[in-house]
Structure formats: structure tokens, C-alpha cells
Fold:
Amino acid sequence: MTKIAIIGSGLIGRAWATIFASHGFDVALHDVAPEAAEAARAHIGRNLQELSGHGLVEDPKGSLARIRVASDLADALRGAELVQENGPEAVETKRALFAEMDRLAAAGTILASSTSFIMASVFSETLAGRARCLVAHPVNPPHLVPIVELAPAPWTDPAVLARAKAIYEQAGQVPIILRKEKPGFVLNRLQAVLLAEAFRLVGEGVASAEDVDKTIRDGLGLRWSFMGPFETIELNAPGGIPDYCARYGASIATMAAQAVGGDPFGAETVATVMSEWPGTQSAERVKRLSDWRDTRLAALQAHKRAAAHKPA
Ligand SMILES: NC(=O)c1ccc[n+]([C@@H]2O[C@H](COP(=O)([O-])OP(=O)(O)OC[C@H]3O[C@@H](n4cnc5c(N)ncnc54)[C@H](O)[C@@H]3O)[C@@H](O)[C@H]2O)c1
Structure:
């Protein structure tokens, strides 16, 4: 059975353990905080039950039984085909962890980081085993949102990238491959542009934050749950993508050129957003709404799995 090591058992590490164990992999979990991995195991049990309730996992108990808490980092890495690193988002932490993992892991083990923003070349450059390092960036919560961005460094071995892609596919994920390094990878670059414009529109008094959310939730987002932007515009002009660009490209380019400059997330703009936002911000509210989101996402995933395939 293929073994996976999960390093760091916080929000993202737990979700990775859920994913791999529910797809038949043996999982070893390690965290520097002594009780964290045990606590994560309980959380993973709840994740698996919820997925099972939506028909997304067949054997939650058997899946949980495939996860063990390792005694230390070396124990976690022993026999692992792939290591998924989920430590704190700081360059020095990633560098130290990857140096340690490169020293301890067997030569054939792939070392992947969940980092949101740090490029693989930044934390792997000086390592003897740098050819086996890459970024595998998930989206929160990874056990319900299957995209994973594979972002190799210039020196990552293409065979390592291919093996990693096959493992993530076997784990039910949807890997994409970056052909060159770019800070923020693909997903967060797309999200950055949308978020910046959303804050600008509210800050300039064009619309309320609630109405901007409705525009995505009951507008663009409905298509986006099963189509990308290119697939979308192909259907918005009779001649497809080139026709769309000929008809609307100039107007869209003008708007895109206006949507630059300044800090869209400045204190004044944030205050404007919050002045009409319902509910005070608290960890309790975030937890309650995250649980609601996860239930909705699980139902959406179940629907997507059952939905008909796209015609050619
Ligand atoms: N939270 C998100 O939405 C999200 C999404 C995608 C990717 N990521 C990335 O995933 C990574 C983890 O994020 P998170 O939200 O799970 O953080 P988190 O704070 O919830 O968890 C981090 C865990 O790492 C442990 N840790 C710290 N140092 C360690 C070490 N040296 N060895 C082993 N464990 C160690 C901590 O005890 C903690 O349990 C980050 O790089 C982050 O950028 C986060």
C-alpha cells in the first residue's frame, strides 16, 4: 500500500490526511506540537463521517484506521512515497523543514509543500535532493475542493512531477501543472484580481459588499462551479472565443486597465465594507459558518460527481 507522510496537522494537514486515507493510502501524521496530531485524528474522523453522509466516502472507519500518528519526523517519513508538508507559512520554516526532510527521507520520496505563496525554488535551492521538491498547493478545505496546483522549481525532475500528478489523481484530486514559477501560482492570482476589484467597487460606493457577493453567488459563480472562464466565453458569442474577443475585448481591456493602482485593502475601504456587514467578526462565527460551508460544498461535490459529462 502506498504510504503518505503528512507533516503539520493543522487545518490543511488534516484535510490531506482525510483525502489520502479515504483513497486507500496509508497515512503517517506528524506535528511538532505534541497533542496536535492526536487532536487532528479526531477531527479527521468527523470529516470522514460527513463525507460518508454525502456518499463521498465508502468506509469512514476503515479510512481512519489507515492513519497513524508518527512518533517523530523520521518515523513519519519512513517508507513514504510522498510527503505533504503543511507547516506555517514562513520562508525560514519551510527552508528548515525541507532541509530536515531532505536529510531524513529515502532518495525516492517526493517532497511537496502546501504553501500558498512561497515558490519551490525559494525553499529547495540549496538542497542535495532539490530535484524531488515541488509545491502542491491545495484550496481550503482540500477534502471538499479537489484542485491542487503543482508548481515545480526549475530543477524539479519531470519524472517526480509526473509521479506526483499520478498520486494526486489517485487520491481523487484535480492537479494542474504550472509550466513556470509565478508567485501566487494560478488560483490566488485569479482570486487577487477579483478580490481587489470587489473591494474597489465597495470602497468607491458603486455597490454594497452584499450585492457584490450576490453577483458572484447568484451570477458568475453558478457557471464557475462547473465551467472555467475560457469555457464560459466560448458560449457567449456565436463564433466562440475569437468572436467574443473581437466583440467585447476592447471594453474588457479598458475595464481591466482601470482596475489597477492603489491599495484596495486599505483601512478606509475595509471600514466601508464592514460598516454594512452583518454580524460581528469572531472565531465562533468563522467556525459556525465554516461548518455550514463544508456541508454545502459536500452536497455540491456529490452533485458534481453525479452530473453528466461535458459533450465533446
Ligand atoms: N489555510 C488555508 O486556507 C490554506 C490553503 C492552502 C494552503 N495553505 C498552506 O498550508 C500550510 C499550512 O496552513 P494551515 O492553515 O494548515 O496552518 P495551521 O496553523 O492550521 O497548521 C500548521 C501546523 O503545523 C505545525 N507545525 C509547525 N511547525 C512544524 C514543524 N516544524 N514540523 C511539523 N509541524 C509543524 C503546527 O503545530 C500546526 O499544527 C501553509 O503553508 C499555508 O500557506 C493554507
